[in-house]
Write a structure and sequence with these properties.
138 residues, mainly alpha, 5 helices
Length: 138
């Protein structure tokens, strides 16, 4: 009886891991696509500076700065996509083998993802706060 209960728990954990894997892969793909198109858009803005200057639509420095910011944000989005993809790979291995070290490795990747995102968000909020403070200080 006790052995059967343990097997049922293992099957539930593997099933849940298998279902989680699909959503994590979708999320990592979406983040990767956003990062790719952000980099493309940033590059297009920088490449289009001469045309912007001819038409006098916006200052060239604004287009260049926006392009650089988009490229930096896109590059910052690459690590979360890779980290989530690694998590999905480890979860997939666990759901196939039932070997708990695979699940633990996946959880380490997921933990890195969340630590990175928390750190990045704190940095962005602090940067925005400093920018707002400097705007109103002068």
């Amino acid at each position: 009886m006790r052995r059967r209960k343990k097997v049922d728990q293992m099957e539930r954990i593997q099933n849940t891991a298998h279902q989680t894997r699909d959503w994590v892969r979708l999320t990592s793909t979406i983040i990767g696509v956003y990062a790719f198109f952000g980099a493309i858009l940033g590059g297009a803005l920088i490449a289009g500076v001469p045309f912007v200057m001819e038409l006098n639509l916006v200052p060239a420095s604004a287009a260049t700065t926006t392009g650089i910011v988009l490229i930096v944000v896109a590059l910052l989005g690459v690590y979360p996509a890779i980290s989530l993809h690694r998590f999905a790979v480890w979860v997939s291995r666990f759901s196939q083998t039932g070997h708990f070290p695979d699940l633990e490795a996946g959880q380490r990747n997921q933990r890195r993802f969340w630590i990175y995102n928390l750190s990045l968000n704190l940095l962005l909020f602090l940067s925005a706060g400093v920018a707002i403070a400097l705007t109103f200080a002068f």
